[in-house]
Amino acid sequence: MDLISIVLIVAGLALFETVSSVDNAIINAEVLSTMKEKARKWFLFWGILSSVFLVRGLLPWLIVFLVNPSLGPVGALLASFSSDPKVLESIEKSAPILLIGGGVFLIFLFFHWFFVEPKHYGIRGEAFVHRHSVWFYAVVSILLTVVVWKALEVDPNLALGAVVGSTVFFITNGFKQNAQEQEKSLMSLGKSDIAKIFYLEAIDATFSIDGVLGAFAFTLVVPLILLGNGLGAIVVRQITISNIDRIKKYIYLKNGAMYSILFLGLIMLIDSFGYHIPSWLSPIATFAIVGYFFFKSKKSANLAGMESK
């Protein structure tokens, strides 16, 4: 892997982590605004350490280790840099299972947003689909059935990976929905800052799963994932402590994040069935999709500013 590829992958990971965590930053900022100064500083310092190293650092390593237990903890961390043929063979065999699970997760995540979640409509057709949100479960069920059917023709373990990906989605989605309800009660008076810190840590861990699984569409090299996602987490922290209302004006950033997630999920799904996808495609596509919706948001914000004058 040459230097240009490494830089492109890390930059793409950082951008993807940032835009996919915008909702997390907004939640953090709103809850932090109700906390005392000491508690805010504690979370912003120690919280970023835990979110970068404990979640975004350990989770990709843990996933690679669980899929390749024979490598051992150190081997799983450095596997992609190893010249041992047995290690490389183990990674090559396990990669499709990891990719299909992550791909199913990300595609389900996109369709949940596309059908169910409230949004600013960025492209034609989104409003129509949103009005028919009841079809979400039918669409993802049929999709999972087709993916598992095709995977069984290749390898039963591949089919299991797809089912695990869907299971992880529904578990984390349940946590997110519960967190949204908890946020309303936390914003009320009487809740301690300690309870709010625990809530923020839990919601940050839940949101980070999206970024971690999406990272495998860029690379399977765990140190690069740690670096790229870590940089993205730091940017999210800066967004949290800066003027969050300014970020809210970019109303289509979430759209960019979700269409990036769809594209990355499709890449992982296709790659899992043995079709070679160039390593540069994921970061380039992420920059293009997010860039389009960023400028669309900026144009919308400028028009809104002119109308308010």
Topology:
Layout: H1 3-20, H2 22-32, H3 37-55, H4 58-67, H5 72-78, H6 85-115, H7 126-131, H8 136-154, H9 156-186, H10 193-215, H11 222-241, H12 244-248, H13 253-272, H14 281-308
Helix pairs in contact: 1-10, 1-11, 1-14, 2-10, 2-11, 3-10, 3-11, 4-5, 6-8, 6-9, 6-13, 8-9, 9-10, 13-14
Derived structural class: mainly alpha
Q: Poorly predicted ranges (pLDDT <50, ≥5 residues)?
A: none
Tell me the helix content: over 70%
Largest sheet: none
Q: How many beta-strand runs? A: 0
The end-to-end distance, rounded to whole angstroms, is 52 Å
User: What oligomeric state do these chains adopt?
Assistant: single chain
Could you tell me the mean pLDDT? 83
Order of helices and strands: HHHHHHHHHHHHHH
Radius of gyration: 20 Å
- Domains counted in the coordinates: how many? 1
**Count of runs of 4 or more consecutive helical residues:** 14
Strand content: under 5%
